[in-house]
Amino acid sequence: MRLLTWNINSLRLRLPLLARLVDEEHPDVVCLQETKVPDPLFPLDAVRKLGFPHVHFAGMKGYNGVAILSRLPFTPLADFPDWCARKDCRHIGVVFTLPDGPVTLHDFYVPAGGDIPDRELNDKFAHKLDFLDEATRWFTATPPARSILVGDLNIAPLEQDVWSHRQLLNVVSHTPPEVERLNAWMKTGFVDVMRRAVPPDEKLYTWWSYRNRDWRASDRGRRLDHIWMTPDLVPAFRSMRVLKDARDWDGPSDHVPVIADLAF
DNA sequence: ATGGTAGATGCTCTA
């Protein structure tokens, strides 16, 4: 199975880029974040024509939105929390029935958290921390097995996940309270397989701001997008690639796709 | 220390 995750930053605007991505990489399953499309306007026919008969999505007007596109059939996950009681379309999940057993796939879009890393001064930062705590509580109460969790988690946890650890220590996405919470969530039962593929002492980014004149030259990136797997699935993990060149496509997202190849 | 860009929306928010 070739699994791909991408914060597409508007599905409707970047349908041509999605078509190019599918044509070049042939993913079996695509997890999208920031689709920015309300469910009644979801481009279902266009997505089916790309070769994905099985589609699950949750979107809203203007912001957020997640979608899972698949060549393989699945069952959508039900009975998940309405995270922070906001109904804000940041998570969906599905279960694939494979020959060796079921595999659960989660697609998350964690709140970005605004600019000020202080929960007293910034409601968005408080929301981000609360979301992480709630996710940690949920996965602690319901330990994951045969599960994959992907998405834009909006946190770069390791020193080499940002262009300058020192300069970003107090910048939302790399602050200690966020990193502690992301690690606590992961420790409910997941392995960071991107860092199995690329050693932790090597730089690894998936996002470069739009606000740089030359993103490649300045290379002020962050690893905000993640692929986690439970230990029982890690033996099936084969390889991972960050499609950095997609940042130079015509009208790019500020995030690039990440691919994982799995032996099932 | 500051401001830089992008998308959806509709006279501004989120990232």
What's this model, at a glance?
Helices cover 22% and strands 26% of the residues. The protein has 264 residues and is α+β, with helices and mostly antiparallel strands. The protein has a single domain (2-262), classed as Deoxyribonuclease I, Chain A (4-Layer Sandwich).
Task: Lay out the secondary structure.
Blueprint: E1 2-7, H1 15-25, E2 29-33, H2 44-49, E3 54-58, E4 66-70, E5 75-76, E6 91-98, E7 101-109, H3 123-141, E8 147-152, H4 165-168, H5 176-186, E9 191-192, H6 194-197, E10 207-208, H7 215-218, E11 221-222, E12 225-229, E13 237-242, E14 258-262
Parallel strand pairs: 1-2, 7-8
Antiparallel strand pairs: 1-14, 2-4, 3-4, 5-6, 6-7, 8-12, 9-12, 10-11, 13-14
Helix pairs in contact: 3-5
The structure holds one DNA strand of 15 nucleotides.
Family: Belongs to the DNA repair enzymes AP/ExoA family.
Domain Endonuclease/exonuclease/phosphatase: 4-255
Organism: Acidomonas methanolica NBRC 104435
**DSSP, total strands:** 14
Q: How many domains is the backbone divided into?
A: 1
**CATH-defined superfamily:** Endonuclease/exonuclease/phosphatase
Mean pLDDT across residues? 97
Describe the structure.
The protein is built from seven helices and 14 strands. With 264 residues, the chain is an alpha+beta fold. It has a single domain, classed as 4-Layer Sandwich (Deoxyribonuclease I, Chain A). The protein has a six-stranded mixed β-sheet. A six-stranded mixed β-sheet has the order 5-6-7-8-12-9. Helix 3 links the parallel strand 7 (101-109) and strand 8. Helix 3 (123-141) packs parallel to helix 5 (176-186). The longest helix is centred in the middle third of the chain and has 19 residues, at 123-141. It is globular, with a radius of gyration of 17 Å. The protein binds one DNA strand of 15 nucleotides through loops.
